[in-house]
Specification:
DNA polymerase, domain 1, hpI Integrase, Chain A, 2 domains, mainly alpha, 12 helices, 4% strand, 3-stranded antiparallel beta sheet
Amino acid sequence: MQADLDRFIRHLADERRLSPQTVRAYSSDLRDYTEFLVSRGMGDWEEADSKTVRAYLAALAGRGLARSTTARRLAAVRAFHRFLRLREGAVRDPAAGVATPKQPRRLPRPLTREQVEALLSAPDASPLGLRDRAILEVLYAAGLRASELVSLNVDSVDMRRGEARVIGKGGKERVVLLGMPALDALSEYMRRGRPALRPRDPKALFVNRFGGRLSDRSLRRLLDKHIRAAALASGVGPHALRHSFATHLLEGGADLRTVQELLGHASIKTTEVYTQVSRRHLKEVYDRAFPRA
């Protein structure tokens, strides 16, 4: 069983080119699933059927895990059994007919324009501050995921055209746009910040204080630092700037297809959640401004 699991994890990393963080999540989820099967006396994947998978979901619910966590683990189990069927010759896929637990619909909470300005103004003029200012500007200007930002290379950015090439989910490449504030912050970082940090990786655009490529975890820490400095509510992460980017575009009149392309969403349905955020904004403005609201 372990050999099959190892081959699947290599498939995710080498063929599907998922981020290290995503691969680790799959690995952890499937280890938990394997332990469940072993606890039921199973020593082979072929012994599992749809009742087994449903029993696993019930066990997760019994542990008090959130529905979102249960749904994520089911997605990992599905992907793994599909891999076994298509690539390893398994006879059946026990997860194929198992429904995903219904999720409560949560709308993203974008920052206001004033909050974004406060956050972007928080870093100082030190080399690390110049780096952080460039990071925050690029996250907001391009609506990047954390993994997309830390994987940027120096040659990913075309300063003249105001564009950057980004590797998104599943190794898909897209071009994102950078406004003048982001380009100015990047230029200043490249001129005064990055050389002072003595990069050990000549390709990496954003480096840590030791010169190595910045990690997702370091990105989260620096963001927390500037959130405190800007006196914003806790819980604001890199994705909040992505949500804010999409919401502010729609509020400014951008069409949904354009926002989908800039965010790198495979499906328009994923992008449609932002129209609900914008409607909420419009209702707030209406209630505040219209005399007969």
